[in-house]
Write a structure and sequence with these properties.
The structure is a homodimer. Chain A is mostly helical. Chain A has one domain (about 55-200): Tetracycline Repressor, domain 2, CATH 1.10.357.10. Chain A has eleven helices and no strands. The longest helix of chain A has 25 residues, at about 120-140. At the A-B interface, helix 1, helix 7, helix 8, helix 9 and helix 10 of A face helix 1, helix 7, helix 8, helix 9 and helix 10 of B. The first copy, chain A, binds a DNA duplex through helix 3.
DNA sequence: GTCTATACTACGATAGAC
DNA sequence: GTCTATCGTAGTATAGAC
């Protein structure tokens, strides 16, 4: 119970303040326990940080099960069906990026991208890799003329469109003239991302 | 001279470690001076941080003059010409994101996006706003059927594609199987971004 | 398992000599 | 302008009581 409270608090603090910015004193205090509980349950600050990375990985796996399944199911799906599935996966990621629950995770991950630590390895091999494989499998069948490196580049730039919702959140809010992204702004951006993705994925083959 | 060295060092340290992670002791040491020089020249740690934001703003203005000019020149340019100019602007941003020089700036900005401080205000009104206006002016003429909010959403998602080069750098490197993004990977990603952007911008009107 | 108490290090700011 | 010296605070880790 103390362990769970500590993890929850740590996720919030590490997300908002980063590894250095967060303090074990404050995490323990906000969890209603003492600093030495962190040593007991997680071995120290770093162990707590890695436990957060593991927890984030599991939460994303739950929410992005569709993308992970896609890697296995892509070979047996038709082209039209795959396109729709892929657009749904991109929208799932966009929804996750928009949702308030993911704020701490997103900050955590964006920090790790700038200066990867052991936690990034947990995140990448724990969930990102499989999600990318799913997206790439779908793209490979939708656009069979593309080379493997092009498929990869396409998958990454598609993700970029949704990444902007978190990685440039402050700019998005300022550009749209709002303090926080609400339902309306979320719908506008998701719709635009869907339109863009459709144009990108069918641009070379349909007309 | 001491002032310049301090600014340069601070840019690197704040970029890599964030405001909390960086220490004035280390910045002074690496600049070959003493902590109290920071107080003398910048008033303190926060003043030094804001001076970094101002410096980044000026550097980006220099490198993205094309985007800033676009806002003024868009009305007098033809549709085909505007499309090419816009693709060039996007490529300029991509080049900046790929270039090693921008690593510290990018980290600095990405951090500010997660937890905006006064420094974000400097960055946004100092350069981001004008760049967005340029891109929106071009999109507005290329796709005259779009509403103003759609134009804005389109501008933001277009930027997302290049943002991925910095904000998800670690994932991009892992996905491409390299330790650092070299010439080859940069060319691949820039080419993909250009293809995507072209499909997005002409998707609704040409076929 | 969880607490208090403490050891040790590093932080930013400031005073005052030069 | 730049230095040294120092103050007060806050960081993590650890020892030992319960």
């Amino acid at each position: 119970m103390t362990q769970e409270r500590l993890l929850e608090t740590a996720l919030d603090q590490f997300g908002r303040l980063g590894f250095d910015g967060a303090s074990t004193r404050e995490i323990a205090r906000a969890s209603g326990t003492s600093m030495s509980s962190i040593t007991y349950h997680f071995g120290g600050k770093e162990g707590l940080y890695l436990a957060c990375a593991h927890h984030i990985t599991e939460q994303i796996r739950l929410r992005q099960a569709g993308a992970i399944r896609l890697a296995r199911e892509a070979p047996s799906l038709g082209r039209e069906e795959l396109l729709e599935r892929l657009l749904a996966v991109i929208d799932d990621v966009a929804l996750m990026m928009l949702h308030e629950d993911s704020a701490a995770w997103s900050c955590f991950i964006v920090r790790e991208q700038q200066q990867p630590t052991q936690a990034f390895e947990l995140l990448y091999s724990g969930v990102m890799e499989e999600m990318l494989e799913g997206v790439e499998a779908a793209i490979g069948r939708i656009r069979p003329e593309l080379a493997s490196r092009e498929i990869r580049a396409l998958a990454l730039t598609l993700f970029g469109q949704v990444l902007v919702l978190r990685a440039a959140r402050a700019t998005v809010c300022r550009a749209l003239g709002v303090a926080r992204l609400g339902e309306e702004e979320g719908a506008l951006l998701r719709s635009q991302i869907r339109t863009n993705s459709l144009a990108i994925l069918t641009g070379g083959t349909q007309s």
